[in-house]
Design goal:
Rossmann fold; globular
């Protein structure tokens, strides 16, 4: 009987120990941490899939960029075409503006146009003028006409508000008086915009070894900087005198060149020489 009771007590103790171990396992955090560790790779895998799923969107962006690039290239090409067309137009305009004589002007001062000559004036009795089938013309005007014809340009006469005497000797005296006091005659408005021309052929008579004072007035009223001024004079023995240097002083920004000095009595015989000079010095 005693032995039987002892065996029964040992069996009850063993069952109590097994149930205590099971209860302690429910309180331990270690199994939960282990579960978390096993889930991390799955989460990382889902993140990778998300990134992979975004790759097609990147591909679409590249396609859109390619389309945008194509459109930009088309716009650039169209703009280049417009620029080329504009350049062609500019080239045409430049070619037209560089036609012979388009940038030249023959400017002259003459007694004719500045003197109220009668219709029946006798050229033989009034020096420096000529009468032919074209009417009355002064020597300076004739030279300017030949220059303009050869250069393919227009002419413009320097015109004074007050006219000069019909009598040649009286004109000579008045010219001397104007020179002595430095008088600048008032001029009528220019027929052309002188500043628009690059080359000026300036023709005038040598009066008392100098420019006529009306030519001083003309130069005072114009800045010829950057232009080429070709000087032609008519004379009775003095040739250019100091006129070329005087013009250079008055127009320091211009290139002043000596053209031809033609004796008044020989103007008709000098036509070919005048034309040839223009040909030889044409820009």
């Amino acid at each position: 009987m005693s032995i039987l009771l002892v065996s029964l007590l040992f069996g009850l103790c063993a069952c109590g120990n097994e149930n205590g171990a099971a209860a302690g396992g429910q309180d331990s955090p270690a199994p939960q941490e282990a579960v978390a560790d096993t889930q991390e790779p799955e989460t990382a895998g889902k993140e990778e899939e998300t990134i992979e799923n975004e790759e097609p969107a990147q591909g679409n962006t590249e396609q859109e960029s390619a389309v945008a690039g194509t459109e930009a290239a088309a716009v650039t090409q169209a703009a280049a075409g417009d620029t080329a067309a504009a350049a062609d137009t500019t080239s045409v305009e430049t070619a037209e503006s560089s036609a012979p004589g388009s940038n030249a002007l023959a400017v002259y001062f003459s007694r004719v146009g500045n003197t109220d000559f009668p219709d029946d004036v006798d050229a033989d009795s009034s020096a420096s003028i000529r009468v032919d089938e074209n009417g009355l013309m002064g020597n300076a005007g004739q030279i300017a006409a030949w220059i303009a014809d050869e250069a393919g340009c227009e002419t413009m006469e320097i015109l004074t508000e007050e006219t000069y005497p019909v009598n040649y000797n009286e004109t000579v005296d008045q010219a001397k008086q104007e020179q002595n006091v430095g008088f600048r005659p008032m001029l009528k408005a220019d027929e052309k915009a002188v500043e628009d021309y690059d080359t000026i052929y300036l023709v005038f008579p040598n009066w008392w070894g100098d420019l006529p004072m009306s030519v001083y007035s003309f130069l005072d009223s114009h800045d010829l900087s950057g232009k080429t001024v070709n000087v032609f004079v008519t004379h009775e023995g003095s040739r250019f005198s100091g006129t070329v240097g005087t013009i250079q002083e008055l127009e320091p920004g211009a290139e002043v060149l000596e053209g031809l000095a033609v004796q008044g009595a020989n103007v008709t015989d000098e036509e070919q020489n005048i034309r040839q000079w223009v040909i030889d010095h044409r820009n």
